[in-house]
Amino acid sequence: MPLPKEWNEPVSHDIAKLTENRLYIPKLKLNVPYGITEEALNSGAWHRYPERGDSEKGGNFILAGHRFEMGWTYQEINKKSPFYHIDQLHVGDDIFIDFNGKRYQYKIEDRLKVKPTQIEIEASSNDAKLTLYTCTLGGEMDGREVIVARLKTTDVDPSLQF
């Protein structure tokens, strides 16, 4: 017969498996996959310039997504336009990234509006940061809405639901 457990003994549990690279923004109820090819834009976000950074190795982890793309149904428009409500994000909001089987938490520290020619938002960085960007509602030629977030936690419990 096993001995009774101590009151503070850890309880074993199955760890949730993260099988896909995903972006979660709880405030926007956004939960989309991302990939390293431009085709990833059709179902979520595009991890641009993976050599410049990711959650694991640090640097500038760059994700781009559509602000507004037409579709035949409301559901199709929503799927093609994951960053439509990006303007509702503020400094201090959380963003979560699943990357290579691990969940990471970022905290927004800046919001910018830049011209399409201001490509410095995609520059390499020594700091571990996440750069999300999309077109303004004025369109591709008008400019970009940019969210910059800093890495806060590197091993978030994957059983958290968003």
Explained architecture:
The chain has one helix at 74-80; strands at residues 22-25, 30-35, 45-48, 53-54, 58-64, 94-99, 102-114, 129-136, 139-153. The protein is mainly beta and 162 residues long. It contains one helix and nine strands. The mean pLDDT is 86.
Quick structural overview:
This protein is mostly beta strands and 162 residues long.
Low-pLDDT stretches are none
Work out the oligomeric state of the chains in this entry.
single chain
Round the mean pLDDT to the nearest integer and report it: 86
Structural class by SSE content:
mainly beta
The biggest beta sheet reads: 8 strands, mixed, barrel
Q: How far is it from the N-terminal to the C-terminal residue, by CA? A: 41 Å
Strand order of the largest sheet: 1-2-3-5-8-9-7-6
- Beta percentage is 35-45%
- Topology, number of strands: 9
How many helical stretches?
Answer: 1
Determine Rg (CA atoms, Å).
18 Å
* Helix percentage: under 10%
- The shape is globular
The SSE string, one letter per element, is EEEEEHEEEE
